[in-house]
Amino acid sequence: GAVVSQHPSWVICKSGTSVKIECRSLDFQATTMFWYRQFPKQSLMLMATSNEGSKATYEQGVEKDKFLINHASLTLSTLTVTSAHPEDSSFYICSADAGTGGPSTEAFFGQGTRLTVV
Amino acid sequence: GENVEQHPSTLSVQEGDSAVIKCTYSDSASNYFPWYKQELGKRPQLIIDIRSNVGEKKDQRIAVTLNKTAKHFSLHITETQPEDSAVYFCAASKGPGTYKYIFGTGTRLKVLA
């Protein structure tokens, strides 16, 4: 199946610093990618929809200035957590649509990034 | 807003028994319902999905049923094995891939050997 790769897999950063997470579709192009956040033992909560070449669409309650999304190419979307605080510590995971050129088949997920802010 | 409820939150079954997880969605425009299995610290893996024009779908030991009128869909795992132990999430969407998924709250399944 299609491969979505996230980098880094885990990161520890100090409070107040910014962290960038990359989501790449390795063998297909994705005009749309999604960013989710998952707290321990909880569900995946959609943060935003990342659209190639345009602004991301954020879900209600998600601060767009804190979680910057850039989808500069058809294979790469980035999520930057700005001025990170301990409460931003979470598992961040992206997904991408692999249905390029035809009907979408399924969403493929990256392996996730565990962010710990100390 | 869009919401997906999932029950139970935890489920323990004896090896060989069946497990059933149920979900209810709120958005009547949803027409695609995938189920994901997630092991600790790993990415969700699609195990089965169903579209709204189908009432039931089966793949070996796994089956999903959909009642579009009641906005219910369920996951059925038969002949459970210890390796089925994981967290299972249902989701609802207006379509696969391109559209956002609204996930249920998850069910932690434990299969006891």
Quaternary structure annotation: heterodimer
Task: Note the main sheet of chain B.
Answer: 6 strands, mixed
The overall pLDDT of chain B, averaged over residues, is 93
- Residues in helix, % of chain B: under 10%
Structure description:
By secondary structure, chain A is mostly beta strands. Chain A contains no helices and eleven strands. Chain A has strands at residues 4-7, 10-13, 19-25, 32-38, 44-51, 57-58, 67-73, 76-81, 90-97, 107-109, 113-117. Helices cover 0% and strands 54% of the residues of chain B. Chain B is globular, with a radius of gyration of 13 Å. In chain B, β7 (62-67) and β8 (72-77) form a beta hairpin. In chain B, the strands form two sheets. In chain B, strands 2, 4, 5, 9, 10 and 11 form a six-stranded mixed sheet that branches. Chains A and B meet through β4, β5 and β9 of A and β5 and β10 of B.
Could you list some keywords that capture this structure?
heterodimer, A: 118 residues, mainly beta, seven-stranded mixed β-sheet, four-stranded antiparallel β-sheet, 11 strands, 0% helix, globular, B: 113 residues, six-stranded mixed β-sheet, five-stranded antiparallel β-sheet, 54% strand
What's the gist of this structure?
The complex is a heterodimer of chains A (118) and B (113). Chain A is mostly beta strands and 118 residues long.
